[in-house]
Specification:
single chain; 279 residues; alpha/beta; 5-stranded parallel beta sheet; 32% helix
Length: 279
């Protein structure tokens, strides 16, 4: 099954005899909160899931800003949203795709077999003529119980090793990679050996992922061909999940360093490279 779904395809499945569980994961770094936007209009039947409290654990120190959630908290949130082990799941956000990819990655990491991201998010849904609803749905509680470990993760040591021996992609904006600006974390720069690969370059102007062939070409130019292990990090494990999604669409498996730069840079013993080159 593909990791993404088009708005037209979702419309057909949502009207079918066994519609997927729909998760609305609208979120923006620094706000505003996504819940008011959800209340103002969402895809009919969708349940809101909060990224900061349900798709991440408490932030702090070398754990990073969005560490892995406690499986019991995550599982309870998914069951509340109607997620069951034998039911397809579709996740979406406001269009950027980062938050939806985080939910996709967590569900896949915790063992759910059938999860897709709405390509282009809510904007693609409305552009396709899809309706919005203000009705908060009453959903039957699901039975999904997370079994973490189905997708690979990296810690700081593994990320450092992969930067030397494989391909480690930095999904942040290029200026943050170079260390020219750092609006959030303790210090700017990148993990030595990592390659700059901004997540924003995985999408077309309409916010939808590039075609698989174009993504394969993009990642191949960075050395991510599948012949060597590939890892991804970003600021705090959100946009990096979108990079893992894009790699999956290109047919390239990749591990996620969940703590990412927020965790790496919080440890003063970790080396930092700056400038346009891996270092």
């Amino acid at each position: 099954m593909s990791a993404i779904i088009a708005a037209s395809e979702l419309a057909g499945e949502a009207a079918g005899p066994r519609p997927p569980a729909l998760l609305d994961v609208r979120w923006q770094l620094g706000g505003p909160p996504g819940h008011p936007a959800y209340q103002a209009g969402h895809i009919p039947g969708a349940v809101y899931v909060d990224l900061d409290t349900e798709l991440a654990g408490p932030a702090g120190g070398t754990a990073g800003r969005h560490p892995l959630p406690d499986p019991s908290v995550f599982g309870a949130a998914m069951r509340r949203a109607g997620v069951s082990a034998d039911r397809d799941v579709v996740v979406y956000d406001g269009g950027q795709g980062w938050a939806a990819a985080r939910a996709w990655w967590l569900l896949r990491w915790s063992g759910h077999p059938s999860v897709r991201v709405l390509d282009g998010g809510l904007a693609a849904w409305t552009a396709n003529g899809g309706p919005l609803s203000e009705v908060i749905p009453e959903v039957t509680e699901g039975d999904f119980v997370p079994a973490p470990g189905a997708l690979p993760v990296l810690d700081a040591d593994a990320a450092a090793a992969l930067a030397r021996d494989g391909v480690l992609l930095d999904a942040r904006a290029a200026e943050r990679y170079r260390g020219e600006v750092e609006p959030i974390d303790r210090v700017g720069g990148h993990i030595p050996g990592a390659l700059s690969a901004p997540t924003t370059e995985n999408v077309a102007p309409n916010g939808r992922l590039l075609p698989p062939a174009a993504l394969t070409e993009r990642f191949g130019a960075l050395g991510a061909t599948g012949d060597a292990p590939v890892g991804v990090y970003c600021g705090s494990g959100v946009s990096g999940a979108h990079q893992v999604l894009a790699l999956a669409v290109a047919g390239i498996p990749a591990a996620l360093y969940v703590g990412s730069w927020s965790a790496w840079s919080a440890d003063p013993t970790r080396p930092v490279a700056t400038g346009p080159h891996p270092g």
